[in-house]
Design a protein that fits this description.
Layout lengths: L1 H7 L15 H14 L5 E7 L5 H4 L6 H5 L6 H13 L3 E7 L4 E2 L2 E2 L4 H15 L3 E5 L1 H7 L3 E2 L7 H12 L5
Parallel strand pairs: 1-2, 1-5, 5-6
Antiparallel strand pairs: 3-4
């Protein structure tokens, strides 16, 4: 039901890759399986929005097609996030403030306030009953959750350090 509602949603001028484009049915199935597999995760890692090389192609937040199939585009943030979660030993459900893609097939843009507001019901449903950790400033502003540095643009070490502090029970 959740994935069906998401596929039907129009979130501002974002591209809903769960409804449109080649592979939309595969992306919906992957997301459904991912949500079922991670349903018991107590931690929700929330980013800004789906990226053009990441979830727009794979259907799973903070995951690239290359990670899933060994082919297709790789996405640096997805690689860093998944590797760091595994290294630190944190089980997390990953999501985005805006689960659809703001941008073009070859670029990202920051989601608008209206897009963040339109996506809020999906975030609230996913976050219900979980501890939320925001990856990046927009996610922190949208969720009010503790912030860890986004791993892009040289932030991988700070992202890892933030997750380590969180995993150890430290304050962020």
């Amino acid at each position: 039901m959740f994935v069906r509602r998401l596929a039907a949603a129009q979130i501002g001028a974002t591209f809903n890759f769960y409804r449109e484009g080649d592979g939309a049915a595969v992306r919906r199935r992957r997301l459904l399986e991912y949500l079922e597999q991670r349903g018991g995760a107590e931690l929700l890692l929330v980013g800004e929005a789906a990226g053009y090389r990441g979830a727009r192609v794979s259907g799973i937040p903070f995951t690239s097609e290359r990670q899933l199939t060994g082919e297709g585009p790789a996405e640096a943030t997805a690689t860093i996030v998944q590797r760091t979660l595994a290294e630190v030993g944190l089980e997390a459900l990953c999501w985005n403030v805006v689960p659809t893609h703001p941008g073009t097939p070859s670029s990202n843009r920051r989601p608008t306030r209206a897009e963040v507001a339109a996506a809020r019901p999906f975030l609230e449903q996913i976050a219900s009953g979980r501890r939320v950790l925001a990856v990046g400033r927009l996610a922190a502003a949208a969720t009010g959750a503790p912030y860890v540095r986004h791993p892009s643009h040289g932030g991988a070490a700070e992202f890892r350090a933030g997750l380590l502090r969180f995993a150890a029970g430290g304050r962020l």
